[in-house]
Amino acid sequence: MRARRPMPWWLAALVVAAVGILVFLPEPAQQVESLGSRILAPVQFGVSGLLGQAEEVSGVVRKMGDLARQNDQFREEIDRLQAEIVRLRELELENRDLRNLLGLKQRAGTGDLLPVRVIARDPSPYIQSITIDRGTEEGVREGMTVITWRGVVGRVTRADPASAKVLLVTDVNSSISGRVQSSESRVTGIIRGRAEGGLLMQHIPQEESLQTGETVITSDLGGVVPEGLLIGQIIQVRRKDVDVFQEALIEPAADMRRLERLYVLAGPPPSREAAR
Amino acid sequence: MPFLAYAGLIVTAALAEATVGYRLELVGGRLNLVLLMVVAWSLLRGIEEGALAGVVGGLALDLSSGTPFGLDTAILTLIGAVTSLGEHTLYRGSVAFFFGTAVLVTVCYHGALLLALQALGWDIPSFTRLVQVLVPTILINAVLMPIVFTLAQRLLRTLSGWRQLELE
Fold first, then answer.
1. pLDDT, tens only, B83-139
2. Which of A18, A165, B27, B75 could serve as a FRET partner for B106 with CA atoms 20 to 30 Å apart?
3. Within this chain, do residues A245 and A182 fall inside the same structural domain, yes or no?
4. Is A5 among the domain residues?
5. pTM (two decimals)
6. b vs e for B59-74, b when ≥16 Cβ sit within 10 Å of the residue's Cβ?
7. Residue A235: phi, psi to the nearest 5?
8. What pLDDT, on a 0 to 100 scale, did the predictor assign at position A273?
């Protein structure tokens, strides 16, 4: 065990002198203090400034980390909201279609509506027909009418268990009975598809007055399509004095190149011949 | 083995024609990929496999067509069988031969289809419409015929090579 060393005599003398100065000579003490402060202040300022800046930098770094995390969260939120907007837009469109269909259903007094999707089109350029994804297993029968909320699309010509073929109204082999919906004329005629596109309303008596822009709807004369479904608008009237009948070119209301959200009108199945 | 693989490709081509073919119309004409594939196989493999390719392609087209079932099968089987005759009498591998074949089979296919439809009581498009569709279709088929034939030939060589390796 080491012996304890006594306090050096000069240290004791220094302490006694310092206490003596502080007690008996306060002015020199203050001057010393002042001098020390002057020397120390800039250093303190610099150090505190540096520490403050370092603190700020660390704060910024910390904030940057937080901001990056928040940014990621916001981006995820934006993606989610954008997906939600797309979904809501689709729902809005579907809602609009369904409202239109409901109105159409009430006006036309149609039966049940079976939603269907187009899964194929006829490979032949001469035949305008489509294949839909529902068949006899879902209640689809030959002769049933296929519509969009815009109007008539066609009729089912062949129904298989899981799919069905629909002949579009724009095919040359399609013919349905139509009526001009105007206050003056309620004339009816046969509406056939044209190979060049569009529809042709035939067998309209010459004395009937037809105007372009008039709406054409289905008529129950043929007994195969429910009455009151929108077919299209007259875009041209063809009248010759030598002919017994006049004709009208019709622009179909439904866009046959972009068919989506189709519905099969469930009703009594007409005969196979009537479906053609 | 090569025929089965090719038959799968023909069915795929028929599905493509039915699902996206109408979107690829060029100045009113449409590519008859199944027809070209049947013709190419017929030229490569002769009457039996040509006719069989016609049966497969025709059935695949009939399944997605609104025309009476079996019409495409009958026409393509006939074309698949008859085209193989060119293999023995005319085939020299020239571009002119492919062009001529494409023109001939396209006219025959479309003509036979419309005549059969008319015979079955269907209304057919006017002559003007027929020309509007047929002329660009002939051109498209004529351009693609050598390509389809070359691809079919390569496929056949590849698959035959595998078969030879299996036998060894």
1. 887 665 555 567 788 888 899 999 999 999 999 998 988 888 888 888 888 999 999
2. A165
3. yes
4. no
5. 0.69
6. bbbbbbbbbeeebbbb
7. -115, -15
8. 45
* A148 in the same domain as A24: no
Of A131, A157, A195, nearest to B125 by CB-CB distance is A195
Interface touch B66/A119, C-beta < 8 Å = no
Contact B129 A196 (CB under 8 A): yes
What is the three-class DSSP state of A135? Answer: coil
Looking at the structure, do residues A43 and A21 belong to the same domain, yes or no? yes
CA distance B163 to chain A (A): 35
B122 touches chain A (CB under 8 A): yes
Q: How many domains does chain A have?
A: 2
User: What is the average per-residue pLDDT within B46-75?
Assistant: 89
CB A166 within 8 A of CB A129: yes
Tell me the two tokens of residue B66.
Answer: 């609104």
Same domain, A55 and A128: no
Residue A180 placed within a domain: yes
Residue A158 and residue B66: Cβ atoms within 8 Å?
yes
| Arithmetic mean of pLDDT over chain A | 81
Q: Looking at A63, A83, A108, which one is the last position of a domain? A: A108
Q: Do B113 and A125 touch (CB under 8 A)?
A: no
Range of the domain at A80: 10-108
Enter the tokens of residue B126. 């006017």
Of B14, B21, B66, the CB nearest to A127: B66
The residue from A41, A75, A108 where one domain ends is: A108
- B166–chain A Cβ distance below 8 A for any pair: no
Task: For chain A, list residues whose CB is within 8 angstroms of any CB belonging to chain B.
Answer: 119-131, 157-158, 165-167, 171-173, 195-196
Shared domain for A141 and A264, answered yes or no, is: yes
A19 with A123, same domain: the answer is no
Name the nearest CA neighbour of A130 among A149, A161, A154, A150.
Answer: A154
Establish if A2 belongs to a structural domain. no
**Average pLDDT for residues A66-75, to the nearest whole number?**
91
Where are any strands of DSSP class E within chain A? 113-116, 118-121, 129-132, 145-147, 152-159, 164-168, 175-181, 188-193, 199-205, 215-218, 230-238, 245-252, 262-265
> Do A128 and A246 have their domain in common?
yes
Sign of CA dihedral B87, B91, B92, B93: negative
CB-CB neighbors (< 8 A) of B34 in chain A: 123
